[in-house]
Amino acid sequence: MRGIVYCWAAVMRTKLAEQMAYRSHFALSVLLLIVGDLVVPLVTLLVYRSGASFPGWSLHEALLIQAVFALAKGIAFPFFFGMVGTTLSQVREGTFDLLLLRPRPVMMMAMLTGFDPDDFGRLLSGSVLFGYALSGAGGPSWQSWLQFGLLFLASLTILCAVSLFLSGMLFRWVGSSRVFDIFDAVTSFGMYPGTIFSKSLQNVLTYVLPIGLIAFVPASALLGREGWGVLWALVPAAAVLVLGALYWNRMLRGYTSAGG
Amino acid sequence: MRRLAAAIRAIGFATYKEWAAFRSHMAASLLVGPVLFLVQVFIWQAMYEGKETLNGLTYPQMLAYFGVATLIHYISFDFADWNLQMLVRSGKFVTFALRPLPHWLFALAQKIGHRSLALGIEVLPVMALFILAFGVNMKPAAPGWAVISILLSFLMNFFVNYCVGLTAFWLVRAEGVRRVFLLIKDVSAGVFLPLSFFPDVLQKLLFFLPFQFITYLPTRVYIGSYELTGIQLTLGQAVGLQAAAVTVAGAATIALYGAALRRFTGVGV
């Protein structure tokens, strides 16, 4: 465990030092991520201003879903999602072999190598939006906070599993940056109230392809709209993570390079 | 002139062949486009509950807006900015500085080839899906004006992106600037939401910026009515305005390209 923490600390130090060589670029990248994550909330705000709304959801409640989504990305992207970019570039260039040679688990090394300090910008935009949305949505009870905390872990679990699936896919679908578009498209279901989708799609998005768990379900729990039964949703989240890890390792076994 | 056309055709064809090897990357749009559109269908279905129009657009018109905007995005998609910045940063631009064809024309020819391939792999299949699976009315109100407007959008997107790419001649690492600018461009072009939803002050500003000519204006021309900041134009007037804006953008690009070349230094140049 101490070795893992040491690795993380060393990588974070190195990546930060690397970013400091291009400070204005780093500042712009962080700014971009902050602004970029606020685009969907801005669209929601403009639509609500025009008099339309998601039935049964006030502006602050709808923004809370998007805030939880941004918060989850703010944690998942720096720590796990970078492995998608790492796999994308290193498999294409043939340098992924270097990760195989290191005396640490390959999956962990792929995550570590993909660590990106820029992505903490998302955490900032998510926190600001979260505070704003919560200020207009009333004070949640401690039960709601507890449910939210557990479901937020499920949210991170889902994002980690998605990273594994996308990264694993890139061992075969070499060099395709379209995986990021696929991520954006599939997870866009999770940025809006689940109640706007048909009942069957809602069930699919909660229990089969648990995209709804990234933001909608945790936000609903925080708003006191869910009972304790919602914690059953942790099961599909864990199952998806296990499947993701199995898939990634299976795809890794199929990886071939110039080194054999 | 004939030799120039032959050169453009040859570069376009080579790009077409090169990218045909990566056609599965483009084909991902067959999943991405309809999935994003499905989300829009659910969003607007909920938003229009009990309402006939929102900012002057009916529900079918709103779906048509997003359907057409998606297709225009595929047709005019451009990465001249990324490509140029990569060439400048890596020093490979030197080889282009020595060629008897300006690089901006080379990049335009590449875009023509790249997007010709996309027509068969992305645009037409996604359009068929929108019509058959979602029942969206994708019939242009005035096909002639729609085609001209989309072609102008193709050029405008190229000129805007190329100008962003030219910043690489002045900045050490221009990637951050590029990404910020492209995000502003997409928001201001009406990719995420029709510009008529923006506050009046912003609409007035956006009317004079070049971005609306990339997505919003051609989409509205395709649907058959143009209105922004209270200004209503006929289709002919809207396309005329777009043509004027593209001419200005083209002239600005060529002027900026000349200034960039004067600044450029490389090994052997």
Automatic annotation (TrEMBL), chain A:
Segments traversing the membrane: 26-48, 63-84, 145-171, 204-223, 229-248
Entry keyword GTP-binding: no
Keyword terms, alphabetized: Membrane, Transmembrane, Transmembrane helix
Tagged with keyword Nucleotidyltransferase: no
Highest taxon above the source species: Bacteria
InterPro entries hit by this protein: ABC-2_transporter-like (IPR010390)
Protein name: ABC-2 family transporter protein
Organism (species): Paenibacillus arenilitoris
Automatic annotation (TrEMBL), chain B:
Sorted UniProt keywords: Membrane, Transmembrane, Transmembrane helix
Nucleotidyltransferase found in the keyword field: no
Statement: the UniProt record of this protein carries the keyword Transmembrane: yes
Residues annotated as transmembrane: 21-43, 63-80, 117-138, 144-172, 205-223, 235-260
Superkingdom of the organism of origin: Bacteria
Pfam families assigned: ABC2_membrane_6
Protein name as it appears in the record: ABC-2 family transporter protein
Organism of provenance: Paenibacillus arenilitoris
